[in-house]
Amino acid sequence: MPFRYGFKAESERRAAEWRARFKLRSEEPLDPRRIAQHMGIEVVKISDLVGLKKTSLAHLMGAGAKDFSAAAVGLGSQWLIVENEAHSIGRRTNSVAHELSHLLLKHPPHPQFGNGGMRNHWKQIEDEADWLGGTLLVPRPAALAVAVEGLDIDTAATRYGVSVPLMRQRLNATGAMIQVKRSRGVN
Ligand SMILES: [Zn+2]
Hints:
This protein is mainly α. Helices cover 56% and strands 9% of the residues. Zinc ion is lined by residues 98, 102, 126, 129.
């Protein structure tokens, strides 16, 4: 299903507004945890959860790690984002940005571990959170800067603190690569 009209432009606008708020240039990296902090949303690691049984912690960071990247947990009017420190820092940052995006977009809370049908049902909001999350991390001006500088994807991913697949996806989605190649007269 395509995004509603204007959603992608709105995502870019949000990425630009948050950077302006922190006095960052539009192409500079921005840790989503900073946005969360500004919104009064605490971001914690699984091991920070006091009272979690040792066996649960061991599972979430071991065999169960693939099922749990991050989650936004409502505490009355407050929100908490729990990230799984078993994952690479790039993937964790993607996940935090995804959960934060659900909150920015005021999505209804949804189950983390749905069956196939449920996952389908929520696909639209998941896609929106993925898109906004990716845009907050690597907005179009950032993708363009990466391309102009001619950074390789690994270096770019490290600079923006994101996973390599996310950086690749953003470079493709923004058309940054193509634009730079064209402006240099190379095809
Ligand atoms: Zn989600």
